[in-house]
Amino acid sequence: MLNVITLQQAMEIAAQKMNFAPFPAEVLPLDAAAGRILAEDIVSAENVPAFNRSTMDGFALAAKDTFGASGTLPSMLRIAGEIAMGEPASSGVAPGECVKIPTGGMLPPGADAVIPWEYTDTAAELCLCYTSVSPLQNVTRAGDDIAAGQTALQKGSILTPAAVGVLAAMGRPTVKVYRKPRVGILSTGDELVDIGDAPRIGEVRDVNSHLLASLLSSFGCAPVNCGILKDNEAALEAAIRRDASAYDLLLLSGGSSAGDADRTAALIEKLGEVYCHGIAVKPGKPTVLGRVGNTPVFGLPGHPAACFFMANILVKKHLEARFGLRRRTFPLRLPLAEHVSSNHGREELLCVRIENGEAQPVYAKSGVISLLCAADGYITIPRESEGLARGSTVEVTLF
Questions:
Q1: Which CATH architecture has domain 34-47+147-178?
Q2: Apex CA 52: angle with CA 49 and CA 57, to 5°?
Q3: CB atoms within 10 A of CB 24
Q4: Is the separation of the CB atoms in 60 and 108 below 8 Å?
Q5: 7-24+180-323 maps to which CATH number?
Q6: Fold for domain 53-140?
Q7: How would you classify residue 322: left for phi > 0, otherwise alpha for psi between -120 and 50, otherwise beta?
Q8: Rounded Cα distance, 291 and 231, in Å
Q9: For 37-84, how does the pLDDT look when each residue is reduced to its tens digit (9 = 90+)?
Q10: 240: nearest Cα among 249, 85, 84
Q11: Global pTM value
Q12: Of 308, 310, 302, nearest to 189 (Cα)?
């Protein structure tokens, strides 16, 4: 029997009560680590850059030597030499002098600014400066990018391409990341056939195992399709017992409702513990959260869209807690394109697509998989609400 809780309560269970231990870590070559989650703080052992450098092609000089310069009354400085790219500055700059410098070149002693070449003219050994520059203008100082001792990346951060670039700048050829959790996926139901088979009348192809595998891959997991099980209690019990000990996480699709053939919750309780069976949300009401041994088990609805929503919210929330994931979120707030009614007594997750700066509702039943392709994300309608008015501001969670 379903004992319904709120979606917020279910998220707290997924993040806290089912969070038994962090995933183990592994060390990877930097070029293989993109998209993975850091298992350590990255503290820089050196300044990046290691020296003061120019951000412009131009002339390195003491800024005070240009004060008052203008198009009609330029400052005149002696060109004392040239900085070679990739080479240390061989000598300093004396008052009234400048040296030619490329972008990225090392600033010589005595220079504290760079004037871009387009604001200058040269004649023999003289440089005419037609504007003034301030101290440190067009200069990146040592440690301006990353200072020695600075925590450049925090544990739990996703290694984006930009983060990989930061590690490369710091001279880190390897990095410690969390191992990809292995997630077993079981689809249940007498009506299911493999996607390569032609369904007979009354049968449907197994969508959920492939849908979940793709979703889990995007969460940084290593999904394993454990196959299709018919509605046989003994076979399902044996599969749960086997797969709960083999994987870091187990997802069961189908069999979570309250019908005679729906035995997921009862078997999880028999083999371990059920934390909840039933969530006051549409779609996704018959979801089960539990454990077998120390393996979290999610019993997800059989309808593909409902399965997708619950996995996208609850399984993701669980994984983020286990990884200690630091994710920056920026809610997308848009006006609603039309009136929406909702009096189900449950929190409703409504698909929307973004059109002309508005959130346009996309309607379909929970078993309609094409709904997800037609939408950009979803909005949440509170359970106590009877709907939302056109033009009201809604928060869109993107898929």
A1: Alpha-Beta Complex (3.90)
A2: 105
A3: 10
A4: yes
A5: 3.40.980.10
A6: Molybdopterin biosynthesis moeA protein; domain 3 (2.170.190)
A7: alpha
A8: 21
A9: 999 999 999 999 999 999 999 999 999 999 999 999 999 999 999 999
A10: 249
A11: 0.85
A12: 302
